[in-house]
């Protein structure tokens, strides 16, 4: 298994304006609709206190009830419609930028990988969640 201390980046361009993408990324009623990597998972709970020092928490769960976990952190930077940074409970850092690109919004998410799973596995999982966000944000 490869371990690294290098941050990992995933990205997608969403065919929607920045303000709409920002809202669907951050509002709990939207987060529960997209924050999972595959159709056999869901996000039954989310709360988001979108301010420096505020926290985000989302429960990700297998639909068959076999496994669930809480994903969350504390915000260190919030620039509305532009940028988020937060620290996960284990100290890893995450940043998300939102950039106008033509008629769409480029979302770039960078995270510190953990040391339990291969980096490629983590990158694929985070990309799958971002791709699910794109699908949701463009369909509503």
From TrEMBL:
Residues 15-138 form the Activator of Hsp90 ATPase homologue 1/2-like C-terminal domain. It comes from the Bacteria. InterPro entries: ASHA1/2-like_C (IPR013538), START-like_dom_sf (IPR023393). It holds the Pfam family AHSA1. SUPFAM superfamilies: Bet v1-like. Belongs to the AHA1 family. This is Activator of Hsp90 ATPase 1 family protein. It comes from Dyadobacter fermentans (strain ATCC 700827 / DSM 18053 / CIP 107007 / KCTC 52180 / NS114). The lineage of its organism: Bacteria, Pseudomonadati, Bacteroidota, Cytophagia, Cytophagales.
């Amino acid at each position: 298994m490869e371990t690294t201390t290098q941050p990992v980046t995933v990205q997608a361009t969403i065919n929607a304006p920045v303000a709409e993408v920002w809202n669907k990324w951050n509002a709990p009623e939207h987060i529960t609709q997209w924050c999972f990597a595959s159709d056999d998972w869901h996000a039954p709970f989310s709360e988001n206190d979108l301010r420096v020092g505020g926290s985000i928490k989302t429960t990700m769960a297998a639909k068959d009830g076999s496994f669930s976990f809480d994903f969350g952190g504390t915000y260190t930077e919030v620039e509305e419609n532009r940028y988020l940074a937060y620290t996960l409970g284990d100290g890893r850092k995450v940043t998300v930028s939102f950039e106008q690109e033509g008629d769409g919004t480029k979302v770039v998410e960078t995270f510190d990988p953990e040391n339990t799973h291969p980096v490629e596995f983590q990158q694929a999982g985070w990309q799958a969640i971002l791709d699910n966000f794109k699908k949701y944000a463009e369909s509503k």
